[in-house]
Amino acid sequence: VLLALASAPGALALRSGAARLAAEANSSTARRAGHPHLEKFRMQCAKITECYCIRRTPCGWCGTVHRGMLGAEDGPIDAEHCLDWIGWPDDCPTLHCSEGEHSELYWRIQCWWLPALCFVQWVIVCIWREALKVKNLSGRQLESLAGEVGHMVSQNSMDPSQGPSDAAMSYCRQQLLDMFGRKRTFEAFSKGLQCPMEERLQEGAKRPYEMNLSELSARPGDCIDTSQVGPLRCRAMLQVVLQWRTALGASLPTATGLMLVSALYLAVLRTAARDMPKDDYLWLAGVTQDLSAVAGPLEKAVSMLLAFYALDRIGLYWKVLMEGFVIQGRTHDLGMIGGIIQKGTEDSWRRCYRLYRYATINFFFTYQQYTPGLSFVGLGPLVRCGLVEPEEATVLRSAHRGPQSIVEGWIANWIEESLDAEARQQAFQALRELRNACTVTQALVDQRAPLSFESLLYLVVYCLVAIIPFAPSNIDYSNRRAVMDGLHLATVLGDGIICAFYISLLHMLRHLQSPFDDIGAPHDALNPIAIINSSERKLRDYLSAPNPDEVLGTASRGRE
To answer: Beta strands 75-76 and 67-72: pairing type?
Structure first.
Protein backbone atom coordinates (compact mmCIF):
# COMPACT_ATOMS: atom_id res chain seq x y z
CA VAL A 1 0.00 0.00 0.00
CA LEU A 2 2.81 2.42 0.84
CA LEU A 3 4.59 1.66 -2.44
CA ALA A 4 1.37 2.30 -4.34
CA LEU A 5 0.84 5.62 -2.56
CA ALA A 6 4.43 6.61 -3.18
CA SER A 7 4.02 5.99 -6.89
CA ALA A 8 0.76 7.99 -7.18
CA PRO A 9 0.80 11.48 -8.75
CA GLY A 10 -0.71 12.98 -5.58
CA ALA A 11 2.16 11.62 -3.53
CA LEU A 12 4.63 13.21 -5.95
CA ALA A 13 2.90 16.56 -5.50
CA LEU A 14 2.91 16.14 -1.71
CA ARG A 15 6.63 15.37 -1.68
CA SER A 16 7.40 18.33 -3.94
CA GLY A 17 5.35 20.65 -1.71
CA ALA A 18 7.16 19.40 1.38
CA ALA A 19 10.46 19.94 -0.37
CA ARG A 20 9.53 23.53 -1.18
CA LEU A 21 8.43 24.10 2.45
CA ALA A 22 11.74 22.71 3.74
CA ALA A 23 13.70 24.85 1.30
CA GLU A 24 11.72 27.90 2.37
CA ALA A 25 12.26 27.05 6.04
CA ASN A 26 16.00 26.71 5.53
CA SER A 27 16.33 29.97 3.59
CA SER A 28 17.86 32.98 5.24
CA THR A 29 14.68 34.94 4.62
CA ALA A 30 12.69 32.50 6.72
CA ARG A 31 15.20 32.73 9.52
CA ARG A 32 14.87 36.53 9.57
CA ALA A 33 11.15 36.99 8.93
CA GLY A 34 9.87 33.70 10.40
CA HIS A 35 7.61 31.18 8.81
CA PRO A 36 4.01 30.94 10.06
CA HIS A 37 4.50 27.37 11.32
CA LEU A 38 8.05 27.68 12.65
CA GLU A 39 7.16 29.36 15.96
CA LYS A 40 4.92 26.44 16.92
CA PHE A 41 7.68 23.95 16.04
CA ARG A 42 10.28 25.98 17.98
CA MET A 43 8.20 25.80 21.13
CA GLN A 44 7.71 22.07 20.69
CA CYS A 45 11.42 21.45 20.18
CA ALA A 46 12.44 23.63 23.14
CA LYS A 47 10.55 21.27 25.48
CA ILE A 48 12.58 18.20 24.40
CA THR A 49 15.12 17.18 27.04
CA GLU A 50 16.04 13.69 25.73
CA CYS A 51 17.46 12.84 22.33
CA TYR A 52 15.05 10.04 21.38
CA CYS A 53 12.06 12.33 22.04
CA ILE A 54 12.72 13.97 18.65
CA ARG A 55 10.99 11.03 16.94
CA ARG A 56 7.76 11.96 15.14
CA THR A 57 8.68 15.68 15.38
CA PRO A 58 10.41 18.15 13.00
CA CYS A 59 13.14 18.56 15.63
CA GLY A 60 16.73 17.45 16.00
CA TRP A 61 19.07 17.07 18.94
CA CYS A 62 22.11 19.20 19.66
CA GLY A 63 24.49 17.25 21.83
CA THR A 64 26.58 20.32 22.52
CA VAL A 65 23.84 22.09 24.52
CA HIS A 66 21.82 18.91 25.28
CA ARG A 67 18.46 20.17 24.05
CA GLY A 68 16.15 19.85 21.09
CA MET A 69 16.20 22.31 18.20
CA LEU A 70 14.14 22.81 15.09
CA GLY A 71 16.02 21.42 12.13
CA ALA A 72 16.54 18.68 9.58
CA GLU A 73 19.07 15.89 9.14
CA ASP A 74 21.76 18.26 7.85
CA GLY A 75 21.58 20.71 10.77
CA PRO A 76 19.49 23.11 12.90
CA ILE A 77 17.48 26.00 11.47
CA ASP A 78 17.81 28.55 14.27
CA ALA A 79 21.58 28.20 14.79
CA GLU A 80 24.46 28.56 12.38
CA HIS A 81 25.93 25.18 13.34
CA CYS A 82 25.99 22.51 16.07
CA LEU A 83 29.11 20.41 16.57
CA ASP A 84 27.16 17.34 17.77
CA TRP A 85 23.96 17.43 15.73
CA ILE A 86 21.59 14.43 15.54
CA GLY A 87 18.76 14.76 13.05
CA TRP A 88 17.56 11.14 13.00
CA PRO A 89 16.10 9.43 16.12
CA ASP A 90 17.87 6.12 15.48
CA ASP A 91 21.24 7.91 15.76
CA CYS A 92 20.61 8.94 19.37
CA PRO A 93 23.00 7.52 22.00
CA THR A 94 20.04 5.85 23.71
CA LEU A 95 16.52 5.12 22.48
CA HIS A 96 14.83 6.12 25.70
CA CYS A 97 12.21 8.83 25.95
CA SER A 98 10.45 9.32 29.27
CA GLU A 99 7.83 11.56 27.63
CA GLY A 100 6.59 8.85 25.27
CA GLU A 101 3.05 7.80 24.73
CA HIS A 102 3.49 4.82 27.09
CA SER A 103 4.78 4.75 30.63
CA GLU A 104 8.05 3.17 31.74
CA LEU A 105 6.17 0.39 33.53
CA TYR A 106 4.27 -0.46 30.37
CA TRP A 107 7.50 -0.88 28.40
CA ARG A 108 9.06 -3.02 31.12
CA ILE A 109 6.02 -5.29 31.14
CA GLN A 110 6.13 -5.53 27.34
CA CYS A 111 9.82 -6.43 27.52
CA TRP A 112 9.76 -8.99 30.35
CA TRP A 113 6.44 -10.81 29.96
CA LEU A 114 7.97 -13.42 27.66
CA PRO A 115 10.78 -14.41 30.09
CA ALA A 116 8.19 -14.57 32.89
CA LEU A 117 5.99 -16.86 30.77
CA CYS A 118 8.98 -19.08 29.91
CA PHE A 119 9.90 -19.29 33.59
CA VAL A 120 6.39 -20.40 34.53
CA GLN A 121 6.48 -22.95 31.72
CA TRP A 122 9.85 -24.30 32.90
CA VAL A 123 8.62 -24.61 36.49
CA ILE A 124 5.45 -26.43 35.40
CA VAL A 125 7.46 -28.87 33.24
CA CYS A 126 9.92 -29.57 36.06
CA ILE A 127 7.13 -30.20 38.56
CA TRP A 128 5.33 -32.44 36.08
CA ARG A 129 8.46 -34.48 35.31
CA GLU A 130 9.23 -34.79 39.02
CA ALA A 131 5.70 -36.09 39.61
CA LEU A 132 6.24 -38.66 36.85
CA LYS A 133 9.56 -39.59 38.41
CA VAL A 134 7.94 -40.20 41.79
CA LYS A 135 5.17 -42.22 40.14
CA ASN A 136 7.48 -44.33 37.99
CA LEU A 137 10.60 -44.20 40.17
CA SER A 138 14.16 -43.67 38.97
CA GLY A 139 16.39 -46.19 37.28
CA ARG A 140 18.32 -47.14 40.43
CA GLN A 141 15.13 -47.59 42.43
CA LEU A 142 13.71 -49.73 39.65
CA GLU A 143 16.84 -51.88 39.71
CA SER A 144 16.46 -52.31 43.46
CA LEU A 145 12.79 -53.22 43.06
CA ALA A 146 13.63 -55.64 40.27
CA GLY A 147 16.08 -57.31 42.64
CA GLU A 148 13.35 -57.59 45.27
CA VAL A 149 10.98 -59.11 42.72
CA GLY A 150 13.70 -61.56 41.68
CA HIS A 151 14.03 -62.57 45.33
CA MET A 152 10.25 -63.00 45.50
CA VAL A 153 10.45 -65.30 42.49
CA SER A 154 13.20 -67.32 44.15
CA GLN A 155 11.05 -67.68 47.27
CA ASN A 156 8.05 -68.69 45.15
CA SER A 157 5.97 -65.80 46.51
CA MET A 158 4.72 -64.13 43.33
CA ASP A 159 1.21 -63.41 44.49
CA PRO A 160 0.21 -60.19 42.63
CA SER A 161 -1.92 -59.09 45.58
CA GLN A 162 1.11 -58.97 47.86
CA GLY A 163 3.81 -56.35 48.09
CA PRO A 164 3.74 -52.63 47.22
CA SER A 165 1.23 -51.58 44.59
CA ASP A 166 3.23 -48.84 42.88
CA ALA A 167 3.64 -48.89 39.10
CA ALA A 168 7.33 -49.79 39.16
CA MET A 169 6.92 -52.88 41.33
CA SER A 170 3.87 -53.95 39.33
CA TYR A 171 5.83 -53.57 36.12
CA CYS A 172 8.77 -55.69 37.36
CA ARG A 173 6.41 -58.28 38.81
CA GLN A 174 4.42 -58.52 35.60
CA GLN A 175 7.58 -58.95 33.53
CA LEU A 176 8.57 -61.96 35.61
CA LEU A 177 5.05 -63.35 35.88
CA ASP A 178 4.95 -63.53 32.08
CA MET A 179 7.87 -65.97 32.24
CA PHE A 180 7.52 -67.73 35.60
CA GLY A 181 3.82 -67.36 36.35
CA ARG A 182 2.97 -70.93 35.30
CA LYS A 183 4.76 -74.10 36.46
CA ARG A 184 5.81 -76.59 33.77
CA THR A 185 5.42 -80.29 34.57
CA PHE A 186 6.10 -83.47 32.65
CA GLU A 187 2.60 -84.71 33.44
CA ALA A 188 0.98 -81.69 31.74
CA PHE A 189 3.40 -81.96 28.80
CA SER A 190 2.72 -85.67 28.26
CA LYS A 191 -1.01 -84.98 27.91
CA GLY A 192 -0.16 -83.39 24.58
CA LEU A 193 -2.88 -81.45 22.87
CA GLN A 194 -5.41 -82.80 25.36
CA CYS A 195 -3.84 -80.74 28.16
CA PRO A 196 -6.61 -78.77 29.97
CA MET A 197 -6.59 -74.97 29.79
CA GLU A 198 -5.68 -74.51 33.45
CA GLU A 199 -2.44 -76.44 32.88
CA ARG A 200 -1.46 -74.76 29.62
CA LEU A 201 0.93 -71.86 29.29
CA GLN A 202 -0.34 -68.29 29.24
CA GLU A 203 -1.28 -66.96 25.84
CA GLY A 204 1.51 -64.38 25.74
CA ALA A 205 3.25 -61.49 27.43
CA LYS A 206 1.36 -58.38 28.43
CA ARG A 207 3.84 -56.31 26.45
CA PRO A 208 4.70 -57.09 22.80
CA TYR A 209 8.20 -57.79 21.51
CA GLU A 210 8.42 -54.28 20.04
CA MET A 211 6.20 -51.47 21.27
CA ASN A 212 4.91 -49.26 18.46
CA LEU A 213 3.07 -45.97 18.42
CA SER A 214 -0.37 -47.34 17.56
CA GLU A 215 -0.30 -49.81 20.45
CA LEU A 216 0.75 -47.16 22.93
CA SER A 217 -1.81 -44.62 21.78
CA ALA A 218 -4.71 -47.09 21.70
CA ARG A 219 -6.95 -47.58 24.69
CA PRO A 220 -8.12 -51.09 25.58
CA GLY A 221 -10.81 -52.11 23.13
CA ASP A 222 -10.17 -49.23 20.73
CA CYS A 223 -9.74 -49.85 17.03
CA ILE A 224 -6.90 -47.80 15.55
CA ASP A 225 -7.81 -46.10 12.28
CA THR A 226 -4.45 -45.48 10.60
CA SER A 227 -6.07 -43.17 8.05
CA GLN A 228 -7.27 -40.76 10.75
CA VAL A 229 -5.34 -37.50 10.75
CA GLY A 230 -6.68 -34.81 12.99
CA PRO A 231 -6.54 -33.14 16.39
CA LEU A 232 -7.59 -36.28 18.27
CA ARG A 233 -4.84 -38.42 16.78
CA CYS A 234 -2.26 -35.67 17.28
CA ARG A 235 -3.30 -35.46 20.93
CA ALA A 236 -2.89 -39.22 21.28
CA MET A 237 0.58 -39.03 19.75
CA LEU A 238 1.59 -36.24 22.13
CA GLN A 239 0.37 -38.28 25.09
CA VAL A 240 2.67 -41.07 23.95
CA VAL A 241 5.83 -39.08 23.22
CA LEU A 242 5.58 -37.15 26.48
CA GLN A 243 5.44 -40.21 28.70
CA TRP A 244 8.10 -41.06 31.26
CA ARG A 245 11.49 -42.00 29.77
CA THR A 246 10.59 -41.34 26.16
CA ALA A 247 13.23 -39.32 24.30
CA LEU A 248 11.15 -36.17 23.82
CA GLY A 249 9.68 -36.26 27.32
CA ALA A 250 13.13 -36.60 28.87
CA SER A 251 14.40 -33.58 26.90
CA LEU A 252 11.59 -31.19 27.88
CA PRO A 253 13.08 -29.82 31.15
CA THR A 254 16.35 -28.94 29.42
CA ALA A 255 14.60 -27.55 26.32
CA THR A 256 12.24 -25.32 28.34
CA GLY A 257 15.19 -24.17 30.45
CA LEU A 258 17.04 -23.13 27.28
CA MET A 259 13.89 -21.33 26.09
CA LEU A 260 13.99 -19.37 29.36
CA VAL A 261 17.65 -18.50 28.78
CA SER A 262 16.85 -17.37 25.22
CA ALA A 263 13.95 -15.21 26.39
CA LEU A 264 16.10 -13.62 29.12
CA TYR A 265 18.92 -12.86 26.71
CA LEU A 266 16.57 -11.29 24.17
CA ALA A 267 15.02 -9.18 26.95
CA VAL A 268 18.53 -8.03 27.89
CA LEU A 269 19.21 -7.17 24.23
CA ARG A 270 15.98 -5.17 24.04
CA THR A 271 16.87 -3.29 27.21
CA ALA A 272 20.41 -2.70 25.95
CA ALA A 273 19.13 -1.37 22.61
CA ARG A 274 16.93 1.08 24.51
CA ASP A 275 19.03 2.20 27.46
CA MET A 276 22.70 1.50 26.68
CA PRO A 277 24.85 3.99 24.76
CA LYS A 278 24.99 3.18 21.09
CA ASP A 279 28.67 2.19 21.08
CA ASP A 280 28.25 -0.17 24.04
CA TYR A 281 25.18 -1.74 22.46
CA LEU A 282 26.97 -2.26 19.16
CA TRP A 283 29.74 -4.08 21.03
CA LEU A 284 27.16 -6.42 22.61
CA ALA A 285 25.49 -6.90 19.24
CA GLY A 286 28.85 -7.75 17.71
CA VAL A 287 29.43 -10.44 20.31
CA THR A 288 26.00 -11.93 19.52
CA GLN A 289 26.74 -11.87 15.80
CA ASP A 290 30.05 -13.65 16.44
CA LEU A 291 28.20 -16.35 18.35
CA SER A 292 25.78 -16.69 15.43
CA ALA A 293 28.76 -17.13 13.13
CA VAL A 294 30.01 -19.94 15.39
CA ALA A 295 26.59 -21.61 15.66
CA GLY A 296 26.19 -21.98 11.88
CA PRO A 297 29.24 -24.19 11.16
CA LEU A 298 28.76 -26.01 14.48
CA GLU A 299 25.19 -26.91 13.52
CA LYS A 300 26.44 -28.36 10.22
CA ALA A 301 28.99 -30.50 12.06
CA VAL A 302 26.38 -31.67 14.56
CA SER A 303 23.92 -32.54 11.79
CA MET A 304 26.56 -34.57 9.97
CA LEU A 305 27.67 -36.49 13.07
CA LEU A 306 24.13 -37.12 14.29
CA ALA A 307 22.90 -38.26 10.88
CA PHE A 308 25.76 -40.73 10.56
CA TYR A 309 25.52 -42.06 14.11
CA ALA A 310 21.71 -42.12 14.38
CA LEU A 311 21.29 -44.07 11.14
CA ASP A 312 23.89 -46.58 12.28
CA ARG A 313 22.32 -47.06 15.72
CA ILE A 314 18.77 -47.40 14.35
CA GLY A 315 20.04 -49.92 11.79
CA LEU A 316 21.75 -51.81 14.61
CA TYR A 317 18.51 -51.76 16.63
CA TRP A 318 16.60 -53.29 13.72
CA LYS A 319 19.30 -55.94 13.27
CA VAL A 320 18.95 -56.94 16.93
CA LEU A 321 15.18 -57.05 16.51
CA MET A 322 15.41 -59.28 13.44
CA GLU A 323 18.00 -61.57 15.03
CA GLY A 324 15.39 -62.35 17.67
CA PHE A 325 13.14 -63.72 14.97
CA VAL A 326 16.08 -65.68 13.54
CA ILE A 327 16.69 -67.29 16.96
CA GLN A 328 12.99 -68.00 17.19
CA GLY A 329 12.98 -69.64 13.77
CA ARG A 330 16.00 -71.86 14.47
CA THR A 331 14.44 -72.90 17.77
CA HIS A 332 11.30 -73.86 15.90
CA ASP A 333 13.41 -75.88 13.46
CA LEU A 334 14.83 -77.92 16.32
CA GLY A 335 11.35 -78.53 17.73
CA MET A 336 9.93 -79.45 14.31
CA ILE A 337 12.73 -81.96 13.60
CA GLY A 338 12.66 -83.36 17.14
CA GLY A 339 8.91 -83.86 16.91
CA ILE A 340 9.33 -86.80 14.51
CA ILE A 341 10.11 -89.09 17.45
CA GLN A 342 7.44 -91.70 18.02
CA LYS A 343 5.88 -90.90 21.40
CA GLY A 344 4.53 -94.30 22.28
CA THR A 345 6.55 -94.77 25.48
CA GLU A 346 7.31 -92.70 28.56
CA ASP A 347 10.97 -92.59 27.60
CA SER A 348 10.17 -90.97 24.24
CA TRP A 349 7.91 -88.43 25.97
CA ARG A 350 10.68 -87.58 28.42
CA ARG A 351 13.12 -87.12 25.54
CA CYS A 352 10.75 -84.64 23.90
CA TYR A 353 10.18 -82.87 27.21
CA ARG A 354 13.93 -82.54 27.70
CA LEU A 355 14.42 -80.93 24.27
CA TYR A 356 11.50 -78.58 25.01
CA ARG A 357 13.13 -77.46 28.26
CA TYR A 358 16.62 -77.07 26.77
CA ALA A 359 15.43 -75.04 23.77
CA THR A 360 13.40 -72.72 26.02
CA ILE A 361 16.14 -72.01 28.56
CA ASN A 362 18.69 -71.55 25.78
CA PHE A 363 16.42 -68.82 24.39
CA PHE A 364 16.12 -67.34 27.89
CA PHE A 365 19.89 -67.32 28.57
CA THR A 366 20.52 -65.49 25.26
CA TYR A 367 18.77 -62.35 26.53
CA GLN A 368 19.06 -62.62 30.30
CA GLN A 369 22.30 -60.68 30.77
CA TYR A 370 21.10 -57.83 28.51
CA THR A 371 17.63 -57.43 30.04
CA PRO A 372 17.74 -55.68 33.44
CA GLY A 373 14.34 -57.09 34.41
CA LEU A 374 15.71 -60.63 33.97
CA SER A 375 19.33 -60.20 35.04
CA PHE A 376 18.38 -60.50 38.74
CA VAL A 377 16.78 -63.91 38.21
CA GLY A 378 18.99 -66.85 39.14
CA LEU A 379 18.55 -70.54 38.46
CA GLY A 380 16.17 -70.96 41.40
CA PRO A 381 13.10 -69.55 39.57
CA LEU A 382 13.91 -71.73 36.55
CA VAL A 383 13.93 -74.78 38.81
CA ARG A 384 10.69 -73.80 40.51
CA CYS A 385 8.84 -73.20 37.23
CA GLY A 386 9.96 -76.61 35.91
CA LEU A 387 12.33 -75.57 33.13
CA VAL A 388 15.47 -76.81 34.94
CA GLU A 389 15.90 -79.89 37.10
CA PRO A 390 17.73 -79.45 40.44
CA GLU A 391 20.59 -81.73 39.31
CA GLU A 392 20.95 -79.71 36.09
CA ALA A 393 21.02 -76.44 38.04
CA THR A 394 24.08 -77.68 39.98
CA VAL A 395 25.94 -78.25 36.70
CA LEU A 396 24.81 -74.94 35.19
CA ARG A 397 26.03 -72.96 38.21
CA SER A 398 29.55 -74.37 37.77
CA ALA A 399 29.92 -73.18 34.15
CA HIS A 400 33.18 -71.37 33.33
CA ARG A 401 31.65 -68.77 30.99
CA GLY A 402 27.91 -69.13 31.33
CA PRO A 403 25.11 -71.68 31.46
CA GLN A 404 24.12 -71.18 27.82
CA SER A 405 27.20 -73.00 26.45
CA ILE A 406 26.35 -76.03 28.58
CA VAL A 407 22.73 -76.00 27.37
CA GLU A 408 23.89 -75.88 23.74
CA GLY A 409 26.10 -78.90 24.43
CA TRP A 410 23.13 -80.75 25.96
CA ILE A 411 21.04 -80.03 22.85
CA ALA A 412 23.85 -81.40 20.64
CA ASN A 413 24.00 -84.52 22.83
CA TRP A 414 20.22 -84.93 22.57
CA ILE A 415 20.39 -84.78 18.77
CA GLU A 416 23.15 -87.40 18.70
CA GLU A 417 21.21 -89.81 20.92
CA SER A 418 17.66 -89.28 19.69
CA LEU A 419 17.88 -88.74 15.92
CA ASP A 420 19.58 -90.48 13.06
CA ALA A 421 20.30 -90.23 9.33
CA GLU A 422 19.05 -87.08 7.56
CA ALA A 423 17.09 -85.80 10.57
CA ARG A 424 20.27 -85.73 12.67
CA GLN A 425 22.16 -83.84 9.99
CA GLN A 426 19.39 -81.24 9.60
CA ALA A 427 19.07 -80.85 13.38
CA PHE A 428 22.80 -80.20 13.75
CA GLN A 429 22.58 -77.63 10.95
CA ALA A 430 19.69 -75.89 12.76
CA LEU A 431 21.66 -76.00 16.03
CA ARG A 432 24.70 -74.39 14.39
CA GLU A 433 22.53 -71.62 12.94
CA LEU A 434 20.86 -71.16 16.33
CA ARG A 435 24.18 -70.82 18.11
CA ASN A 436 25.40 -68.36 15.47
CA ALA A 437 22.23 -66.23 15.78
CA CYS A 438 22.59 -66.13 19.57
CA THR A 439 26.22 -65.05 19.26
CA VAL A 440 25.40 -62.39 16.66
CA THR A 441 22.67 -60.94 18.89
CA GLN A 442 25.02 -60.68 21.86
CA ALA A 443 27.75 -59.16 19.67
CA LEU A 444 25.37 -56.55 18.24
CA VAL A 445 24.20 -55.51 21.70
CA ASP A 446 27.80 -55.14 22.86
CA GLN A 447 28.73 -53.06 19.81
CA ARG A 448 29.61 -49.46 20.72
CA ALA A 449 31.02 -46.47 18.92
CA PRO A 450 34.66 -45.54 19.62
CA LEU A 451 35.02 -43.50 22.80
CA SER A 452 36.58 -40.55 20.96
CA PHE A 453 33.72 -40.37 18.45
CA GLU A 454 30.97 -40.65 21.06
CA SER A 455 32.56 -38.06 23.36
CA LEU A 456 33.04 -35.70 20.40
CA LEU A 457 29.39 -36.12 19.41
CA TYR A 458 28.11 -35.31 22.89
CA LEU A 459 30.51 -32.37 23.19
CA VAL A 460 29.46 -30.66 19.95
CA VAL A 461 25.75 -31.20 20.65
CA TYR A 462 25.99 -29.73 24.14
CA CYS A 463 28.06 -26.81 22.82
CA LEU A 464 25.48 -26.14 20.12
CA VAL A 465 22.46 -26.16 22.44
CA ALA A 466 24.39 -23.91 24.86
CA ILE A 467 25.14 -21.36 22.09
CA ILE A 468 21.72 -21.36 20.37
CA PRO A 469 19.94 -19.16 23.00
CA PHE A 470 22.68 -16.51 22.67
CA ALA A 471 22.90 -16.56 18.87
CA PRO A 472 19.52 -15.83 17.22
CA SER A 473 20.22 -15.59 13.50
CA ASN A 474 17.04 -13.86 12.30
CA ILE A 475 17.58 -10.47 13.98
CA ASP A 476 19.17 -7.39 12.43
CA TYR A 477 21.24 -6.16 15.37
CA SER A 478 22.25 -2.93 13.61
CA ASN A 479 18.60 -1.79 13.71
CA ARG A 480 18.25 -0.91 17.37
CA ARG A 481 14.62 0.13 17.05
CA ALA A 482 13.66 -3.27 15.56
CA VAL A 483 15.50 -5.05 18.38
CA MET A 484 13.87 -2.87 21.02
CA ASP A 485 10.28 -3.04 19.72
CA GLY A 486 10.19 -6.68 18.55
CA LEU A 487 8.54 -9.35 20.71
CA HIS A 488 10.82 -12.16 19.37
CA LEU A 489 8.30 -14.84 20.36
CA ALA A 490 9.00 -16.93 17.25
CA THR A 491 12.75 -16.75 17.93
CA VAL A 492 12.36 -18.13 21.47
CA LEU A 493 9.96 -20.85 20.33
CA GLY A 494 12.31 -21.85 17.50
CA ASP A 495 15.26 -22.08 19.89
CA GLY A 496 13.26 -24.36 22.18
CA ILE A 497 12.20 -26.64 19.32
CA ILE A 498 15.75 -26.97 17.94
CA CYS A 499 17.23 -27.67 21.37
CA ALA A 500 14.51 -30.24 22.13
CA PHE A 501 15.22 -31.97 18.82
CA TYR A 502 18.98 -32.32 19.40
CA ILE A 503 18.65 -33.36 23.05
CA SER A 504 15.91 -35.86 22.16
CA LEU A 505 18.24 -37.42 19.60
CA LEU A 506 20.90 -37.87 22.28
CA HIS A 507 18.39 -39.54 24.60
CA MET A 508 17.20 -41.79 21.79
CA LEU A 509 20.78 -42.82 20.92
CA ARG A 510 21.40 -43.67 24.57
CA HIS A 511 18.26 -45.79 24.60
CA LEU A 512 19.25 -47.62 21.42
CA GLN A 513 22.58 -48.60 22.95
CA SER A 514 20.64 -50.90 25.30
CA PRO A 515 17.82 -52.32 23.16
CA PHE A 516 16.54 -54.57 25.98
CA ASP A 517 16.74 -52.03 28.83
CA ASP A 518 13.17 -52.44 30.04
CA ILE A 519 13.97 -50.41 33.18
CA GLY A 520 15.84 -47.40 31.77
CA ALA A 521 13.79 -47.06 28.57
CA PRO A 522 10.63 -49.22 28.85
CA HIS A 523 8.90 -47.77 25.77
CA ASP A 524 11.86 -48.16 23.40
CA ALA A 525 13.12 -51.50 24.74
CA LEU A 526 12.44 -54.83 23.09
CA ASN A 527 10.69 -57.45 25.21
CA PRO A 528 12.31 -60.87 24.54
CA ILE A 529 9.88 -62.59 26.93
CA ALA A 530 7.15 -62.11 24.30
CA ILE A 531 8.94 -64.18 21.65
CA ILE A 532 10.22 -66.66 24.26
CA ASN A 533 6.64 -67.35 25.35
CA SER A 534 5.51 -67.62 21.75
CA SER A 535 8.32 -70.06 20.91
CA GLU A 536 7.62 -72.10 24.03
CA ARG A 537 4.01 -72.65 23.03
CA LYS A 538 5.01 -73.61 19.51
CA LEU A 539 7.64 -76.04 20.83
CA ARG A 540 4.90 -77.73 22.82
CA ASP A 541 2.86 -78.14 19.66
CA TYR A 542 5.82 -79.59 17.77
CA LEU A 543 6.97 -81.98 20.50
CA SER A 544 3.70 -83.06 22.08
CA ALA A 545 1.42 -83.41 19.07
CA PRO A 546 0.82 -87.00 17.92
CA ASN A 547 2.28 -88.17 14.62
CA PRO A 548 -0.07 -88.82 11.67
CA ASP A 549 0.26 -92.59 12.14
CA GLU A 550 -0.97 -92.28 15.69
CA VAL A 551 -3.86 -90.08 14.62
CA LEU A 552 -5.09 -92.10 11.66
CA GLY A 553 -4.46 -95.54 13.12
CA THR A 554 -3.47 -98.82 11.48
CA ALA A 555 -6.72 -99.29 9.54
CA SER A 556 -6.45 -95.96 7.87
CA ARG A 557 -2.87 -96.67 6.91
CA GLY A 558 -3.98 -99.93 5.27
CA ARG A 559 -6.65 -98.13 3.22
CA GLU A 560 -4.05 -95.60 2.09
So the answer is: antiparallel
